[in-house]
Each structure stands twice: as C-alpha cells, then as structure tokens.
Amino acid sequence: MTLRNARWLGVGIAFAAVLWGFQMPFRVYRSLEPYDNVELPPDWADKTEWVFARLMYPQHPHARFGRYYGYGAATTWLEGGTSWSQDYPRADRHFSLALRRLTRIQVRSVEQPVNLDDGDDVFNWPWLNAGEMGDWKLTLPQIAKLREYLLRGGFLMLDDFWGTEEWERFDETMRLVFPDRPYVEIPDADSIFHTVYDLDDRYQVPGEWAIRRGTTYRNDGAIPHWRGILDDHGRVMVAMSFNSDIGDSWEWADDPEYPEKYSALGIRIGVNYVVYSMTH
User: Fold this and answer.
1) Is omega for the bond preceding 25 within 30 degrees of 0, making it cis?
2) Which domains does the chain carry?
3) Is 241:158 a contact under the CB 8 Å cutoff?
4) Do residues 125 and 274 lie in contact, with contact meaning Cβ atoms separated by under 8 Å?
C-alpha cells in the first residue's frame, strides 16, 4: 500500500468513526439458508473502523428464491428469508474475521443489513455487498438512493449471478441506476486487483451447491467475468463477480469439503475490494 493510500485510509477511518453515532443499530433477520443458528459473537456491539454492510432488496417477480427454506408461508424481503439473505450471516462473519486477520483494519465481527428505504442510513456504510443479483428489483426511490450513494463515493460488490437469464434480470435494475455508464471488463492491471494481493490469476469460484453437483457453474455461466462500473475518474464504483459465487467461498471457508483454493481466492478478492474502496 502506498503512503498516499495509507493517508486516505486514515482519513476514511476517522470519518467512519464520526458517523458511528448516526448509524442504524445492529439487527438480525431470517436467512434464506437452511440455518438460523449462527452464534452471535461476544464482541458484536464493538465500535470499529469497518463493517460488512449487506444490501437488502425487494424480490424480482421471477426470482429463483422467493421464501425462507424453513417456513411454509411466504415471507417478504423486509423480514429476511428472501434472496438478499442468501449466504447471510455466515459468509459475512467469516469474511469479517478473515479481513481482521489479514489486514490492520479494525473490523466489527457482525454484519449490518442495510435497507435503502431507511432514510440516509446507507451513506453511513461506505462498502456494500449483495448476492443473487438475478433476483433483485429495486423501486425507483431505491434506485435513486443507490445512484446517489455510489456517486458520493460508495462501493458496491455484487456477486452470485449466472448466465444470460440472470444477467438480464440484474440489468433491469442496474441500467436504471446508471443508464449512461457502461459495464466494463476490469483489466488485470487495474489497481483493484493489486491493492493488497496481486490477482492476475483469477478463476471461476463455484458455489458449494455446484461442488455437490460435480460442476462449477449453472445455466450458461461457464466463463467468469470481473466487471465494473466506473465513476468519472475511472474509479470502480460497482464490482461484479459474474458467473462466480464469492459469497459461498466465504460461507464455506471452514468446511473441509469445500476446496481451499476457492476460498483462498474469494477471500483475497474481498480483501482487495475493501482496501480499494477505502483508498480510492
């Protein structure tokens, strides 16, 4: 990390500390996963420099997942148990633990679900993650809020969407967020792939579900893409791991049946994206 980047990292940390008092409190929702027994760490209420913020979103009418696995009745996205809560909260907490160990960033041990309808709360969380992007469909006010968040310096990591059909559902919302900004294939030389780790050798990261099936992808999503949307200065605002499942590489990082090489790459990508977002 350069001295200039370190200086900006310090500024970002100080700014985050000032904002702490205006953030929504920690809260827990149902997971889409067939578990709701993830233990709450003892230091869950610590005030820290960085928090894993997970974007909550309404369901697309053709979403792959519509309700919580463990309940017979359908639920709404405001209660959790829909697509935004895929991998949540285990992936969030595993990655937060890894980031704490691999960097000097002071990381909270629990995630923060963020609802774009909660006033200006999203602006308190400079890094957002979301998965199952073929399932989101934001409202027009949410679209406007997300656009403002990104243009004011926010960073959004999008993950776990596969093939043409899911990309097209994802694009229905994203092209309204930025109708005038193209998707780009992020080049290997971009600093987002070299901020902490040099990640020229990237490969498809399959979900645990794919490993069980003896494959690495679903639909026609055989080729991984590392796409982005840039601001006016060439900074990546939105980073998309299309045809990969980085969230599963975090969620299953402690499972001996999930290959270590995928978690190793997924965690390094996440670390780079976090540090990039705090220094660019």
Assistant:
1) no
2) 3-279 (3.40.50.12140)
3) yes
4) no
CA neighbor of 262 nearest in space, from 189, 209, 191: 209
pTM: 0.90
Q: Do you know the residue count of the chain?
A: 280
Q: Could you give the CA distance from residue 249 to residue 207 in angstroms, rounded to a whole number?
A: 7
Residue 109 token pair: 């041990």
Structure tokens at 252: 């299953």
Q: Look up residue 223 and give its two tokens.
A: 């080729």
266's tokens = 């997924």
User: What is the spatial distance between Cα 224 and Cα 40, in angstroms, rounded to a whole number?
Assistant: 34
Per-residue model confidence (pLDDT) at position 34: 85
Q: Which of 100, 111, 106 is nearest to 41 (CA)?
A: 111
CA–CA dist 200, 193 (Å, integer):
7
Residues 6+ apart with CB under 8 A from 276: 155, 191, 192, 195, 236
**pLDDT tens per residue, range 19-44:** 444 789 999 999 999 876 788 999 99
Question: What sign does the dihedral 259-261-264-267 (CA atoms) show?
Answer: negative
Looking at residue 192, its amino acid is I
- Lowest-pLDDT choice from 24-33, 134-143, 179-188, 246-255: 24-33
Three-state SS sequence of 90-127: HHHHHHHHHHHHHCCCCECCCCEEECCCCCCHHHHCCE
Residue with tokens 């405001």: 78
